[in-house]
Design goal:
This protein has helices spanning 16-27, 40-46, 102-111, 152-166; strands spanning 8-12, 30-38, 53-60, 67-73, 93-96, 115-116, 121-125, 129-137, 143-148. The chain is α+β, with helices and mostly antiparallel strands and 167 residues long. It folds into two domains: 1-75, 2,3-Dihydroxybiphenyl 1,2-Dioxygenase, domain 1 (Roll), CATH 3.10.180; 90-167, 2,3-Dihydroxybiphenyl 1,2-Dioxygenase, domain 1 (Roll). The strands form two sheets. Strands 5, 6, 7, 8 and 9 form a five-stranded mixed sheet that branches. The N and C termini lie far apart (39 Å).
C-alpha cells in the first residue's frame, strides 16, 4: 500500500527568521507551527548527536500537503555546501507557478536576497511538452525551481503531434 504524498520537507537554515521571511514574502507561504526542538527521543529517532537542539518554523502553501519545515540548529554554523547535481540526495525543491506569474516571482525573489540562475525560459521535456521555468538559490544556497506546466490538453496535443511526426 503506498504512503501519502510528501507531507513536508525539512531544510536546515543558518538564520531561521531570514529564511522564513524569504519564503513568506517570496512564495506567499504562511507561517504555522513554530517550536523549540530537541531531547533524547528526537536525537535517537533522527540519529543526531546527543544534546542537539534547535528551532523550527513550518510554512504552508495553498494546501496542507508539501509544507516546508525550516530548522536552525543551535551551535556552530557550517557554511552551505554548493549544490552538485552529481551528488546523491536532494537536488532542488520545485514549486509550480502559473506562467503569467513567473516573471514577477523572479523579480520578487531577487529583491529578497535570492540569487536567480536565469530569467524564466522555455524548456522542452521529452514526451511531455514545453514548460516555462527558472531556478534560484534561497539565502542559504538551497536550489529552488519554479515551473509553469502545460495543462493536460497541451500535453496530449504535444504527444499526438510527436506521434504523427514519427509515423
Amino acid at each position: 500500500m503506498p504512503v501519502s504524498e510528501v507531507h513536508h520537507v525539512a531544510v536546515t537554515v543558518s538564520d531561521l527568521e531570514r529564511a522564513a521571511s524569504f519564503y513568506e514574502k517570496g512564495l506567499g507561504y504562511r507561517r504555522t507551527l513554530s517550536a523549540e526542538v530537541g531531547g533524547p527521543e528526537m536525537t535517537a529517532s533522527l540519529r543526531l548527536p546527543d544534546g542537539t537542539t534547535g528551532r523550527v518554523q513550518y510554512l504552508q502553501g495553498p494546501s496542507q500537503i508539501g509544507q516546508l519545515e525550516l530548522i536552525e540548529w543551535a551551535g556552530e554554523k557550517l557554511p552551505a555546501h554548493p549544490v552538485d547535481h552529481r551528488r546523491p540526495g536532494v537536488f532542488l525543491l520545485s514549486f509550480q507557478v502559473p506562467a503569467d506569474e513567473l516573471d514577477a516571482l523572479h523579480d520578487r525573489l531577487a529583491e529578497l536576497g535570492g540569487t536567480c540562475v536565469s530569467r524564466p525560459n522555455k524548456v522542452l521535456l521529452q514526451n511531455y511538452g514545453f514548460i516555462h521555468a527558472f531556478a534560484a538559490y534561497d539565502p542559504d544556497g538551497n536550489l529552488l525551481e519554479f515551473v509553469a506546466l502545460p495543462d493536460r490538453a497541451e500535453i496530449l496535443a504535444f504527444r499526438a503531434a510527436a506521434a504523427k511526426e514519427e509515423a
